[in-house]
Amino acid sequence: MPDFRLPDLGEGLTEGEIVGWLVSVGDEVSIDQPVVEVETAKAVVEVPCPYEGVVSARFGEPGEKLAVGSVLLTVGEPEQSGSGNVLIGYGTSETPRRRRRRESNAQHASVQRSEHPNSTLGTPEPATVPAPPPATAPAVISPLVRQLARENGLALDRIEGTGPGGVIRRADVERELAARATPLSTESAGRRIPLRGLRGAVAEKLATSRREIPEATVWVDVDATDFLAARAALPTVSLLALLARFTVLGLKKFPELNSRVEGDEVVVLDQVHLGFAAQTERGLVVPVVRDAQSLTTTELAAAIAAHTASAREGKLTPAAMTGGTFTVNNYGVFGVDGSAAIINHPEAAILGLGRIIDRPWAVDGQLAVRKVAQLTLAFDHRVCDGGTAGGFLRFVADCVESPIKALADL
Hints:
Order of helices and strands: EEEEEEEEHHHHEHHEEEEEEHEEEEHH
GO molecular function, one term: lipoic acid binding
Oligomer: single chain
Pfam families: 2-oxoacid_dh, Biotin_lipoyl, E3_binding
Family: Belongs to the 2-oxoacid dehydrogenase family.
EC number: 2.3.1.-
Strand content: 15-25%
Number of strands: 19
Organism: Saccharothrix carnea
């Protein structure tokens, strides 16, 4: 019986945390069928099994970490179908029924395991079909909902589910959290949020950036009236995509900002792997559009839209969130005017766009109401001086103020 081990998930990742099982002992699996959700420092991914057969053992519980190469599943020979010799108690009619129960068994089995904290990593489940769960065992809509409840110390059997058949949804857990929220007192320390997985990786990168990068910030107000008009004329191109287009043009003129520091050298990079900030339910992630310098405006906009959708669905691979050389951020969507952003280590700079609002602005010597926004650039002062940084920011600002002229040069 082959053992399926946690595969190398790429980008130097050495471990993953089990979020939830998608199969139970006794289930039949096919080649490339997802069998477990694993959270790495980059994303939550569904891990497919390369074998076909019956799950005879499972290793690890939700919330436990496994090193790359650790055994996840043991897969036995598939059951025989049709007529022929069968073992007593394992008739051919059992297979379709087991398949129909696969999803519900996976949910109930996860609940049963979470109620027995003394379970240890590496102890396989018995090679039998799990017994039906108790009538009071709660069902959840996804393993991520169970994880949210566990991290906040909520008992699922005390939460009223509003999903079909009483299934507990994310909104139900969040409603319970809101109901329990009270002002802090001397006896209360609030709730604890573990810095692990994606949240922990982001925290570590930000801390490293603050420790190692001597950053400086420059900013400029821009008349974004024509910028909004260009966006309206290009329905498939978002404001962030337009800003990304102008950023790539600026990096062609000021390549020092598309670099990183390695030891006692500044390495100026030829390719622009453009990262952009995307807000998801799991927090802020930075997908990367590779070789952005070779894409047209429409292609760049499509790539950003596709990466954003994947990020919000939790389907980004670790490779899609690493290797960036420069980051853009439209923090105006949060209703703020400006921000001294933290550079996404080991990159050399990050460009941000604040909210676009009506403000008085001088146009041809006359006061007018225009759509005005603020652009900010945080940069590593080791890779360039203020003149280079200011030149780049002014170039991008000019593109925002006269987008048609900038796009005509492409």
